[in-house]
Write a structure and sequence with these properties.
- It is built from 16 helices and 15 strands.
- The protein has about 400 residues and is of the alpha/beta class.
- Helix 2 packs parallel to helix 3, helix 9 packs parallel to helix 12 and helix 13 runs parallel beside helix 14.
- The longest helix is centred in the first third of the chain and has 17 residues.
């Protein structure tokens, strides 16, 4: 089985020399909602653990060349893999030895589906109980201190650094659940840091939140959207947004990726028109939806939105900003509702204003529902699921 197939939110490494049993375990991993990585012996298992950064390991003991006990010792000795939850599945009944080495437990073969379910319950409990680590990369000392204090107050272990090279060294030495990255570093740009992450198989899945004071161009935002999970421009309420984004990713880690997978099942294959004149918001929403299998069509104002709908009548829902040049959201929604084809099309209005009457004004203009900015992503995804199902 190809260990790189089906990149998912959570990857489980299976180190097992019996191809039939390895296949059964892989099927169970898939059914549980995770992605299996399979290694036929201990040496390849260690290699995959270092390259692919799995989230847990199912480990056999009796294997040729290198047994499971030695694999476990080397996993614990390596800073990049020492944090991994490991559960033995073996024909040997040596639970105490497994625990002495730092494993979560050991079940003996033959293994029942009920026992496998208990193994995964144990792994998921380990994920939920682990202290989350965030790397903050920022060369401004005052910003570094304030961001660290903000995150540390949420029971997160914060590791601070001021340079790109130091950040890459830290990432190579130990496990992190998320990184907050400034683009304007002294030794190398944030873009170079992101490219280095993409070149390292064990780091390319790391969630990255860009926190920058730069005035970004459309092309820069497009590039960042390929590499990072979120882009936040320093300014009013940026700290609040940053905290929200980091907590979103850490919550996803805590839940083992289940929430993202469930949303993907509900939204995958749908087509959503996102209308916003702020490119940062546009790309942030496109990234959020794209991760869930949604095809995103972009428009920067109401006039462009009307044209896109006329060209692509198979759009399932619209996210409509209100305050835009050329044609605002109110005008655009009225134009859309005037077309008989789009009378029942779900339109969710988004506005930065929180004035009394905004909600009613949006509904009167043709909105199906309403969200105030900054957007609560969980609420947005929930609304999309509800309206697209209708």
């Amino acid at each position: 089985m190809d260990g790189r197939a089906g990149e998912g939110p959570r990857r489980i490494l299976i180190v097992e020399d019996d191809p039939f049993f390895a296949s059964l375990l892989a099927d169970f991993v898939l059914a549980r909602g995770y992605t299996p990585l399979v290694a036929p012996d201990g040496e390849q298992g260690l290699q995959l653990a270092r390259l692919e950064a799995p989230h847990a390991v199912l480990l056999d003991v009796m294997m040729a060349r290198m047994d499971g006990w030695e694999v476990m010792r080397q996993l614990r000795a390596d800073p990049c893999t020492c944090h991994l939850p490991v559960h033995f599945i073996s024909c040997l009944d040596e639970i105490q030895r497994a625990r002495d080495l730092g494993a979560l437990g050991l079940v003996t073969k033959p293994v029942s589906p009920e026992q496998l379910a208990q193994v995964f319950d144990t792994i998921e409990q380990a994920w939920a109980g682990a202290l989350k680590r965030v790397l903050v990369v920022e060369d401004d000392e005052s910003q570094l201190s304030s961001l660290s204090a903000l995150l540390a107050s949420r029971e997160v272990e914060v590791v601070r650094c001021k340079s790109g090279r130091e950040a890459l060294a830290l990432l190579g030495q130990g496990h992190f659940d998320c990184m907050v990255l400034d683009l304007g570093l002294q030794d190398m740009s944030g873009y170079e840091v992101l490219e280095a992450l993409q070149a390292a198989p064990g780091l390319r899945h790391l969630p990255v939140v860009i926190h920058s004071g730069q005035d970004l161009t459309r092309e820069q935002l497009r590039m960042l959207n390929r590499y990072a999970r979120s882009v936040i421009i320093k300014g009013t309420r940026s700290a609040e947004r940053l905290l929200g984004e980091v907590q979103l990713f850490l919550h996803s880690v805590e839940q083992g990726g289940r929430a993202v997978q469930q949303e993907a099942l509900a939204l995958a294959g749908s087509k959503v028109l996102v209308v916003d004149d702020d490119m940062r918001n546009l790309f942030s929403l496109a990234s959020l939806l794209g991760e869930r299998g949604v095809q995103v069509v972009e428009a920067e104002n109401g006039l462009e939105a009307v044209d896109k709908l006329s060209e692509q009548a198979d759009i399932d829902a619209v996210l409509m900003d209100i305050m835009m040049p050329q044609m605002d959201g109110y005008q655009a929604m009225r134009r859309i509702r005037a077309d008989a084809r789009f009378r029942d099309l779900p339109i969710i209005a988004m506005t930065a204003k929180a004035m009394p009457g905004d909600h009613q004004n949006c509904l009167e203009a043709g909105a199906s529902d309403y969200l105030a900015k900054p957007i609560d992503t969980a609420q947005l995804l929930s609304l999309l699921r509800v309206w697209i199902r209708r």
